[in-house]
Amino acid sequence: MPLKRDLVGAPLPALKHAYTWRDAVLYALGVGARIDELDVLYEGRGPVVLPTFAVVPSFRSLVDVVGRLGVENPLSILHGEQTVRLLRPIPPSGELETRAQVTGIYDKGKGALVVVVARTTDERGEPLFENEFTLFVRGEGGFGGERGPEARSAEPPARDPDFRETQATTPEQAALYRLSGDLNPLHIAPEAASAGGFDRPILHGLCTYGFAGRAVVRHACGGDAARLASFAARFSGVVFPGDTLTTSGWRMDDGRWIVQVQQQDGKVVLSHGAAEVR
Question: Residue 182 catalytic?
Fold first, then answer.
């Protein structure tokens, strides 16, 4: 069944997401927050909501789009890139509304690239943050469409990074992160991982993204989550629970930060990272 390319620009239903400070803390723990990060773990200090928590209220919108694409085999869909744009700090509780739109379906030859933009507002209807999800659908290219925009340039410069943070994930990391809403069995059930071509369950790409986002807040933003304006990255490799992740950041002349995450063997698993800091 071919992709439903008429989804591009079509209005999709708004989806609501209610959450409390417990959900914000659970997410922080899911992306590796430690006891010395009490601002994001203790309700007595807010808690401060990590900027990358923005993926959680918007995740159902992504699932909704995937269900409408007409793809017979969900395992053919890869989450390729993720961007979060923050308009202001995320409150520690609330009921948010997200409206998603497929902004483009592009022909990449061996597959199709699907770009989804999800805009989220608060209870007053005021814009809060925006997510851009990029999906690669294997085997769905070759339909003669546009190839789409060029990839974002975000290569690290040939010098030592301005910050480097290493943190080990735990064997239970995926089991903990999935409680924030991504219940794909690929991340918990060995039989599902095997069907996907892996010898054991893999870590969510958005969990690795959250680890990197924490490092950006700690080092590039001086620990002030409100300073992070946007964070974009590409999922470049597979991470398993228990792997060690090293996030490196380079401050550029234009004020951006180039961000990259490597596994313990040096393999890059999060690339083309770019953060804008206020």
Answer: yes
Q: Which residues is 275 bridged to in the sheet? A: 231, 257
In this structure, the dihedral spanned by the alpha carbons of residues 22, 28, 34 and 38, taken in order and rounded to 10 degrees, is -50
Q: How many CB atoms sit inside 10 A of residue 84's CB?
A: 23
> What's the pLDDT tens digit per position in 119-174?
999 999 999 999 999 999 999 898 888 888 777 778 999 999 999 999 999 999 99
* Beta-carbon contacts of residue 182 (< 8 Å; ≥ 6 apart): 59, 204, 206
**Catalytic pick from 90, 105, 202, 258?**
202
Catalytic option among 182, 204, 213, 219: 182
Catalytic residue, from 111, 181, 205, 249: name it: 205
pLDDT band at 1 (very low <50, low <70, confident <90, very high): low
User: In the CATH scheme, what is the code of domain 163-277?
Assistant: 3.10.129.10
User: Is 79 considered catalytic here?
Assistant: no
Instruction: Give the predicted TM-score (pTM) of the model.
Output: 0.95
Pick the catalytic residue from 17, 187, 219, 272. Answer: 187
In DSSP notation, 22-42 reads HHHHHHHHHTT--TT-HHHH-
Encoding tokens for residue 159?
């010098």
What pLDDT score was predicted for residue 165? Answer: 98
The topology (CATH level 3) of 5-138 is: Thiol Ester Dehydrase; Chain A (3.10.129)
pLDDT tens for each residue of 75-110: 788 999 999 999 999 999 999 999 999 999 999 999
Task: Look at residue 208 and tell me whether its pLDDT is greater than 80.
Answer: yes
205 is catalytic: yes
Domain map (residue ranges) of the chain: 5-138, 163-277
Annotated catalytic residue 109: no
Q: Position of tokens 């807040």?
A: 217
